[in-house]
Write a structure and sequence with these properties.
Elements: H1 3-11, E1 14-20, H2 27-36, H3 48-55, H4 64-68, H5 72-77, H6 81-97, E2 100-107, H7 119-137, E3 140-148, H8 153-163, E4 171-177, H9 190-198, E5 202-207, H10 214-224, E6 228-231, H11 239-248, E7 251-254, H12 256-261, H13 273-278, E8 283-285, H14 297-306, H15 312-324, H16 330-344
Parallel strand pairs: 1-2, 2-3, 3-4, 4-5, 5-6, 6-7, 7-8
Helix pairs in contact: 1-14, 2-3, 6-7, 8-9
Bound molecules: zinc ion.
Length: about 350
C-alpha cells in the first residue's frame, strides 16, 4: 500500500464505538500497579516480558475463551480508584494520539468491586477521569456499562439500578458481554434489556464471537432489538438477517483483528466486511482492545485497505456512519459531523462517487 494512504488513515479524525477499558492495560502500567500492591497477585514479581505476554496477544488463539483469559490480570489489578483513573486517562490519550475524535469506552463496573469499591465509586471514578482526560486531550468520550453473561440476572439488574443516576452524565449506554461458550443465550436475561430500555439507556449487545453463531445471533437481535451489536460478522451468512439489520438500521461494530485473534477467521481476506457493506448492513470499525490486540484504529483501517476489503472513500463513509449511530446527544453529534465533513471536504479520495442515475 502506498505511504500516503496510511498517512491519510492516521490523520483522519476517527470515530470508534467498540472499545474495552480493561483491554487497554499497558504492561508498564500493570507493573506499576503490581509493585504498588507489593506483588500480592503473583508468586514472584514479573518481568516486563512476562507481563507483556499476559496482556498482549502475540499469536492467533483458538477461541474467544482463550482471548478472554487476557483479561485476568486487568481483573486483578483494576480494583482501586487510582488504577481505574490511570487506565481511563491512558486510553483517552492513546485515542487522541491516533486522531480518534469520538470514542465510546465500555467496561463492566461490577468486575471492579472485588476489593471493596462500590459500583457507584467505580462508575464515578471512570466518569470523572474520562471527562477530564476528554477535555484535555480533545476527544469526546461516552461510556457504556456492561452487564455480564456470567453474572446472574439479579446481579445485572442491580447494576442497572446503581448506574441509572449517571445516565446522560457521560454514561450513555448498556452492553451485555462475556464468554458465549459458557453462557450462549442472552435471551435468558431479556429482563436486563427491558429494564435498561426503561431507564433510557441505548443498548448494544456482544454477540457472534464464536463460529457458527449466525442462527443464535439472528434470534437474539430479533428479540432484544439492540441499537447496535458488538461484533456479529457471522450475519453475513444470513441474507434474511442482513435485511433485518438494514431495515432496523442496527449497526454491527466490527473488530476484525480481535476476531482473527480469537480464531474466528484465518485472515483479513476472509473477514466478511465487504459482503456486509455490499449487503447494505450498517457497520463500523473498531479495535475492541487496543493493548490486548496491540492495535490502533489507524492500523485496523490500514489492515483492511491492504487486502482490498474497502477503499478509502468507503472507510470514510463507515466512519461517518459510525458517528450517525453513536450513543451521543444529537447536538454534539451534529457539531462533530460538521467538523468531520469540513475536514474531508477538500480530500477527493474520501468523497464517495456520485450514485448512478436511475
Ligand atoms: Zn468487545
Amino acid at each position: 500500500m502506498e505511504r500516503w494512504m496510511a498517512d491519510l488513515c492516521r490523520a483522519m479524525p476517527k470515530v470508534e464505538l467498540h472499545l474495552h477499558l480493561d483491554g487497554a492495560l499497558r504492561p508498564k502500567t500493570a507493573l506499576d500497579l503490581s509493585a504498588a500492591r507489593q506483588w500480592r497477585d503473583f508468586e514472584t514479581p514479573l518481568s516486563y516480558r512476562q507481563m507483556h505476554s499476559k496482556l498482549v496477544v502475540g499469536h492467533p488463539l483458538a477461541s474467544q475463551g482463550e482471548l478472554l483469559s487476557y483479561f485476568e490480570i486487568p481483573g486483578l489489578l483494576l480494583q482501586t480508584e487510582e488504577a481505574l483513573r490511570r487506565i481511563t486517562r491512558e486510553l483517552v490519550w492513546e485515542k487522541a494520539a491516533d486522531h480518534v475524535c469520538y470514542c465510546e469506552i465500555r467496561w463492566a463496573p461490577q468486575l471492579h468491586t472485588a476489593e471493596g469499591l462500590t459500583t457507584r465509586q467505580v462508575v464515578e471514578a471512570v466518569l470523572e477521569e474520562s471527562a477530564s482526560a476528554s477535555r484535555q486531550a480533545g476527544v469526546i468520550v461516552r461510556l457504556i456499562a456492561v452487564g455480564m453473561r456470567t453474572h446472574s440476572l439479579g446481579q445485572n439488574l442491580k447494576m442497572l439500578e446503581e448506574i441509572a443516576p449517571f445516565r446522560g452524565k457521560g454514561l450513555a449506554g448498556v452492553d451485555f458481554a462475556g464468554p458465549e461458550a459458557k453462557a450462549p443465550d442472552a435471551l435468558e436475561q431479556e429482563a436486563f434489556f427491558l429494564r435498561a430500555r426503561e431507564l433510557g439507556f441505548a443498548i448494544t449487545l456482544h454477540c457472534g464471537e464464536m463460529p457458527g453463531s449466525a442462527p443464535r445471533l439472528a434470534e437474539q437481535i430479533r428479540q432484544l432489538r439492540p441499537a447496535r451489536v458488538a461484533h456479529g460478522p457471522g450475519s453475513a451468512e444470513d441474507p434474511v438477517l442482513c435485511a433485518f439489520l438494514r431495515e432496523q438500521d442496527a449497526m454491527l461494530d466490527l473488530c476484525p483483528t480481535s476476531n482473527l485473534q480469537a480464531g474466528l477467521y484465518p485472515d483479513y481476506e476472509s473477514y466478511p466486511l465487504r459482503q456486509l457493506v455490499e449487503a447494505g448492513v450498517p457497520v463500523s470499525i473498531s479495535t475492541d482492545d487496543s493493548v490486548l490486540s496491540n492495535l490502533t484504529l489507524s492500523d485496523e483501517y490500514i489492515n483492511l485497505l491492504q487486502v482490498g476489503q474497502v477503499d478509502l472513500s468507503t472507510l470514510w463513509r463507515l466512519n461517518l456512519n459510525a458517528l450517525g449511530h453513536a450513543f451521543l446527544e444529537p447536538e454534539e453529534k451534529a457539531r462533530l459531523l460538521f467538523r468531520l465533513n469540513s475536514w474531508a471536504s477538500n480530500i477527493p479520495e474520501l468523497q464517495s462517487p456520485p450514485a448512478e442515475l436511475q
